[in-house]
Design brief:
The protein has 777 residues and is α/β, with parallel strands linked by helices. It folds into three domains: 2-31 and 660-775, Barwin-like endoglucanases (Beta Barrel); 109-207 and 437-532 and 572-615, Rossmann fold; 212-424, Dimethylsulfoxide Reductase, domain 2 (3-Layer(aba) Sandwich), CATH 3.40.228.10. It is 34% helix and 17% strand. The protein contains 31 helices and 34 strands. The strands form ten sheets. The protein has a six-stranded mixed barrel. The chain has a six-stranded mixed sheet with strand order 7-6-19-18-17-8, with helices on both faces. Strands 13-10-9-15-16 form a five-stranded parallel sheet, with helices on both faces. A hairpin with a 4-residue loop joins strand 22 and strand 23 (556-560).
C-alpha cells in the first residue's frame, strides 16, 4: 500500500502520507462474510484474548469490568456516550468498552528512557498502533530540536513555557484550544474559562467533525441542540428507526435496547448502505441464559440499504406517504399537534407534494415499495424514535437531513411524550458534556453574559475558529499555538498531509494525553507532551480523592470516580493541568485556579451558577444515576424565533454519483475506537489482517475490471479540482448499493480535502467523497 500525493510534480496534489496506521498483519489478508450474531461469544472470546495480550488478567481487567458504569461508585466508560442502564445491571458493559479500558490500564510505560532511545524522526515512521502500544506516558516531555528527541521537563517549567508563549502572542486569537470527548465536565469548564479569560473563543472540538450538523439542525427546528429522549423512551417506543449507525461497533450497549425492543414486539428499521451485524441479531453477553443456549434475538424487522447520502430522500418519501394517507386517513397526521405546536407546515406539505416519487427513488436508491414499507411502520406506531449518527451528519446536506427527520417526527406528534422523539447517537463519552459546559466556538450572548457575571471576567464576543478553521489558520500562520486536550488531532482531522503541515508551522503545540500517538510526532517548532490521569485512575487532590462528571448522549449527568493507582506518580489530573497552564498564562488572574483543583465540588458550585440546567449541581449529580438536564423541547417549549417547532422545506440534494465516479464513505473497523487501532481485523465485516481496503459493489467492480481482493487506486476530486490518491488498496466485494464504496478512517482521511466541508455545518464530508477507483496498473 502507498499514498501518492506529490506536490512537486503537480500543483493540485499533496505530499505523501508515509506511515501505516494499523499493526503489521499477522497473516495474509482474508475476507469471509460474517453471519453470526453480534456480541455473544464472539465478543467474549475477543475480550478475553485482548485482556490476556495486554496483561490485564487475572486481576485488573475483571476488577475494572465490575467497576465500569456503576453509579457513583465506579468510573464511566471512556468509550461511547450511550447512557447507563436504568435497571441497575451488574454488568453494563460491552466489548469495545472493555478493550478501551484495558488499553488505558496497560502495564507498559513510556518514560524518559524510551524517548532517549528513539528520535522523533524514527517514531514518525512507526505505525500508529505501535506508537500507542508502547504504553502510558509517565512524565512531562519537551521537544529538543537539536537532538530530535523529547527530553524530560518539570511541570513548573512546562507550564512556564506555555504561559510565556501565550503571553507573547500579539493577539490571543493566535492560540486555539482543542478538546476531545474524553474531557470531564469540570475540566471542560475550566478549559473554556481559561481560553475566554485569555481573550479567545477559538475552542474547536471533535463535535465539529461529527455531530455539528445535529446540533445546528435541532437548534433551528426545536430550539435545542440535543435529542429529547432518554433510555426509558427507548424501552417504551413502538418503533425505532436507526439511520447511519453501526451500533455493534460504535455504541454496542445499544444492542441491549434493540433486543429488548424486538422481544416486546416493537418494530426496528435500520437504514444504512451496509447491513451491519447489529442490524440482524445479537446475543447480549450479560444475559446468562441466552449465552448458555446460544439464543440470538433479532435486532431489526426491516433493513433498508440507501445509497450514500440518500437518507434525506427516504425520510422525505416517508413524510410524503404520510401526507398522502392523511387525505383519507385522519389519524395518519396529528393535526392538533401540528396546528398548536408548529409553524411552516403548509410550506413543507407543498415541498413534499412537489417532490416526485421518481426523484425520491433515484436519490434514496430505494424502490417506492421499500419507502412505503418504512412509512407503514411509522404510521402504525403510536410512538416512534428516530436515531442517527455520522452516516447522516457527515454530508454537505447533513443539517437538512436532520431537519427532515424532525419534520417527520412533527407530522405525527412524536415529540414531548414518552417513547418518542429525536435521538442522535453521540460518539465519545463526554462530547455532549463538552459542548454543554462551554466548548463552543460560537457561544451565545446569554452564555457569555452569565459567564462574565459569575466568573468576573470579560469574555470575548467575537466568534472563534472551529476545527477546519483552526487547521487553515495554523497553515496560514494565523494560529501559532495549538493546545490539544486529549484525542489525536493529527490523525482524526481531514486532509492529513495538509493538517500535518499546519501543525508543523505552529510555534508551540501542547498535547495533554495518556498515551503516545501521532500528534506527538507531528508537532510545532516547540512541543510539549503533558501526561494526565486516565478515567480509570484515582485522582488525589488536597481535599481527598476527587470524582468528575460526564454527560451521556441522552443528557444524563452522572459521576465517575477512578479505581486504580495512577500509572505514574508524575501524572496530573486534567483540571490540574489546565489550572497550571492558566496560572502561568494569566499570572494576575483573580480566578482561583489552585483553589478549584483542591476540591472539584468548588468547580461544580461555580458551574451551578454559570450553566443553565446545573442548578444544585453537587447534590443532584450524586443522586442515583445522577440527573437529566432539562430539555425544553421535550416539554413542548420551543426556544425558536417563532416559539414553535419549525418545519423546514429544502429541496432534495442530488447525491447520485456522476458516471464513472463513486460516493465513498469512511468508517471505523470493529477492532478500533476512533483513531485507536487494536488490530487489523474487522470481525463483523469478515475482514482479517487488512485495513487498506475498499468495500465495493460487485457490479461496480466488474464494470471496472476489478477482481476480488485485487489492488486498486483510489482518487478523490475536491471542490477546487485538486486530487488525492491512495494506491494499492484491496477491493473487497460487499453488499453495498451500486455507486457506493466504503473504507476505514483514519487512513482514508487523506482523501477528504480540507475545503470539502459542509457549507451547512462546516463538518468535513467524510461520508460522501467523490472518487474514482481503477485497477492498479
Amino acid at each position: 500500500m502507498s499514498t501518492d500525493q506529490d506536490e512537486s510534480t503537480a500543483p493540485d496534489e499533496r505530499a505523501p502520507l508515509e506511515h501505516r496506521v494499523g499493526p503489521e498483519p499477522e497473516g495474509e489478508p482474508a475476507f469471509r462474510p460474517y453471519h453470526h450474531p453480534a456480541a455473544g461469544w464472539g465478543a467474549a472470546k475477543s475480550v478475553t484474548r485482548f485482556m490476556a495480550r495486554e496483561g490485564a488478567l487475572p486481576m485488573d481487567g475483571p476488577r475494572a469490568i465490575m467497576k465500569m458504569n456503576h453509579e457513583n461508585t465506579g468510573f464511566d466508560c471512556p468509550g461511547c456516550a450511550w447512557p447507563d442502564d436504568t435497571k441497575g445491571l451488574h454488568l453494563d458493559i460491552c466489548e469495545n468498552g472493555i478493550k478501551h479500558v484495558t488499553w488505558e490500564m496497560t502495564r507498559k510505560r513510556v518514560g524518559r528512557e524510551f524517548f532517549a532511545a528513539h528520535s522523533v524522526t524514527e517514531l514518525a515512521g512507526w505505525t500508529d498502533y505501535d506508537l500507542e502500544n508502547q504504553g502510558r506516558l509517565t512524565e512531562p516531555m519537551v521537544y529538543d530540536p537539536d537532538s530530535d528527541h523529547y527530553v524530560p521537563i518539570s511541570w513548573k517549567d512546562a507550564f512556564a513555557l506555555v504561559g510565556r508563549t501565550l503571553r507573547e502572542l500579539e493577539d490571543p486569537n493566535q492560540a486555539s484550544f482543542y478538546t476531545s470527548g474524553r474531557l470531564g465536565n469540570e475540566a471542560t469548564f475550566l478549559y473554556q474559562l481559561m481560553a475566554r479569560e485569555l481573550g479567545t473563543n477559538n475552542l474547536p472540538d471533535c463535535s465539529n467533525m461529527c455531530h455539528e450538523a445535529s446540533g445546528r439542525a435541532m437548534q433551528a427546528s426545536l430550539g435545542t441542540g440535543k435529542g429529547t429522549v432518554d433510555l426509558a423512551d427507548w424501552e417504551t417506543a413502538d418503533a425505532l428507526f436507526i439511520l447511519g449507525v453501526n451500533a455493534a461497533s460504535n455504541a454496542p450497549r445499544m444492542l441491549t435496547a434493540l433486543t429488548g425492543a424486538h422481544a416486546r414486539g416493537a418494530q426496528i428499521v435500520h437504514v444504512n448502505p451496509l447491513v451491519e451485524a447489529a442490524a440482524r441479531r445479537a446475543i447480549i453477553p450479560h444475559d446468562v441464559k441466552d449465552m448458555a443456549t446460544f439464543h440470538a434475538t433479532k435486532t431489526s424487522t426491516l433493513n433498508l440499504q440507501v445509497r450514500i447520502g440518500g437518507d434525506m430522500a427516504l425520510v422525505r418519501g416517508m413524510a410524503k406517504a404520510i401526507l398522502e394517507q392523511s387525505v383519507t386517513d385522519p389519524k395518519a397526521l396529528d393535526r392538533e399537534f401540528v396546528e398548536r405546536h408548529t409553524t411552516g407546515f403548509e410550506e413543507y406539505r407543498a415541498a413534499c407534494e412537489a417532490t416526485p416519487w421518481e426523484e425520491i427513488e433515484t436519490q434514496s436508491g430505494l424502490s417506492r415499495e421499500d419507502v412505503l414499507k418504512a412509512a407503514r411502520v411509522y404510521r402504525e406506531a403510536d410512538r416512534s424514535i428516530i436515531s442517527w449518527c455520522l452516516g447522516v451528519t457527515q454530508h454537505e446536506h447533513g443539517v437538512d437531513t436532520v431537519r427532515e427527520i424532525v419534520n417527520l417526527l412533527l407530522l405525527r406528534g412524536n415529540l414531548g411524550r414518552e417513547g418518542a422523539g429525536p435521538s442522535p447517537v453521540r460518539g465519545h463519552s463526554n462530547v455532549q458534556g463538552n459542548r454543554t459546559c462551554g466548548i463552543d466556538h460560537h457561544p451565545s450572548e446569554e452564555f457569555l453574559d452569565r459567564l462574565a457575571e459569575v466568573c468576573a471576567i470579560e469574555p470575548p464576543r467575537e466568534h472563534g475558529l472551529d476545527t477546519v478553521g483552526t487547521i487553515k489558520a495554523m497553515h496560514d500562520g494565523d494560529v501559532k499555538v495549538f493546545v490539544g486536550m486529549g484525542g489525536n488531532f493529527a490523525l482524526a482531522a481531514p486532509d492529513t498531509p495538509y493538517t500535518y503541515e499546519a501543525l508543523r508551522r505552529c510555534e508551540l503545540t501542547v498535547q495533554v494525553s495518556t498515551k503516545l500517538n501521532r500528534s506527538h510526532v507531528v508537532h510545532g517548532r516547540r512541543a510539549l507532551i503533558l501526561p494526565c490521569l486516565g478515567r480509570t485512575e484515582k485522582d488525589h487532590q488536597r481535599k481527598g480523592i476527587q470524582s468528575t462528571s460526564v454527560e451521556d448522549s441522552m443528557s444524563m449527568v452522572h459521576m465517575s470516580i477512578g479505581m486504580k493507582r495512577p500509572a505514574s506518580p508524575h501524572l496530573l489530573s486534567e483540571p490540574a493541568v489546565i489550572a497550571g497552564m492558566a496560572r502561568a498564562a494569566l499570572p494576575d488572574s483573580a480566578t482561583p485556579w489552585e483553589w478549584y483543583v483542591e476540591d472539584y465540588d468548588r468547580i461544580r458550585d461555580t458551574m451551578a451558577k454559570a450553566l443553565d440546567g446545573f442548578e444544585d449541581f453537587n447534590r443532584r449529580v450524586r443522586l442515583p444515576l445522577g440527573f437529566r438536564i432539562k430539555q425544553p423541547a421535550r416539554e413542548l417549549v420551543f426556544l425558536t424565533p417563532s416559539g414553535k417547532a419549525e418545519f423546514a422545506s429544502p429541496p432534495l440534494p442530488d447525491v447520485v454519483p456522476e458516471p464513472g465516479t463513486l460516493a465513498l464513505g469512511t468508517m471505523r473497523s470493529h477492532d478500533q475506537w476512533n483513531t485507536t487501532i487494536y488490530s487489523d481485523n474487522d470481525r463483523y465485516r469478515g475482514i482479517r489482517n487488512l485495513r487498506t481496503l475498499v468495500f465495493m459493489n460487485r457490479s461496480d467492480m466488474r464494470e471496472r475490471g476489478i477482481a476480488d481482493m485485487a489492488p486498486v487506486d483510489i482518487t478523490s476530486t475536491a471542490r477546487d479540482g485538486s486530487r488525492r490518491h491512495l494506491n494499492g488498496y484491496l477491493a473487497v466485494p460487499y453488499d453495498i448499493p451500486r455507486g457506493c464504496a466504503a473504507g476505514y478512517m483514519p487512513e482514508m482521511n487523506v482523501l477528504c480535502a480540507l475545503d470539502d466541508y459542509s457549507t451547512q455545518s462546516d463538518q468535513p464530508i467524510m461520508k460522501h467523497l467523490k472518487v474514482t477507483i481503477e485497477p492498479t496498473s
